[in-house]
Amino acid sequence: MTHAKIREAICAIGASIFQRGLTAGSSGNISVKTEDGWLMTPTNASLGRLDPARLSHLDHSGGLIAGDPPTKESFLHRVMYEERGDTGAVVHLHSTHSVAVSCLSEVDPHDVLPPITAYYVMRVGRLPLVPYFRPGDMALAEAVRGFAGKHHAVLLANHGPVVGGTNLDAAVNAIEELEETAKLYLLLRGAETRFLTREQVEELLG
Ligand SMILES: [Zn+2]
């Protein structure tokens, strides 16, 4: 894929995410790996109004080659690429239902959401909760790094999900599946629910 095509894809997916209310204001960020580094959404940019020419073009060490300065949350993307060699794209959102679940004290921090549907199990799998850190605290990067080796999707407490994929479509599909499952979890909360059994989950992951 050429840089021009990747830039167009990031902007089109950003607009789609924003229009569907999956992240608000200037929250949320997207990155895609290129042969010479990364293309990433800029700081203070709304995903709904991205300009392909102003995306941040970063080299392999994170230095800015061209475009606007990258999102202040670029470190979340960097650790995912560094710990997972097959990662081609990373998406981070402040999507409402996922953020709501990330604030619940009742969830299991080792695996936040139960196996409600087969697609959730296949696209997201086990979802750990990363402890809360204030914005800008680089300890968050190291906390995410601790999980990224084993998980392509993590949920930051009182903040939102970070999901990596082999390409942009895979990362977006997985984070949307996570958001939908968070919504289902909240809808089902308090109702007697039949989740997938351990055997059914193992069959899917087999
Ligand atoms: Zn964030």
> Secondary-structure element order, as H and E?
HEEEEHEHHEHEEHH
Q: What oligomeric state do these chains adopt?
A: single chain
- Main beta sheet strand tally, sense and closure: 8 strands, mixed
Helical residue percent?
25-40%
- Number of helical runs? 7
Structural class: alpha+beta
Shape: globular
N-to-C CA distance: 32 Å
Small ligands present: zinc ion
Strand content: 15-25%
Which runs of at least 5 residues are low in confidence (pLDDT < 50)?
A: none
For the biggest β-sheet, the strand order reads: 4-3-2-1-5-8-7-6
DSSP, total strands: 8
C-alpha-based Rg, rounded: 17 Å
Overall pLDDT confidence = 96
Give me some keywords for this one.
single chain; 206 residues; alpha+beta; eight-stranded mixed sheet; 7 helices; 16% strand; binds zinc ion
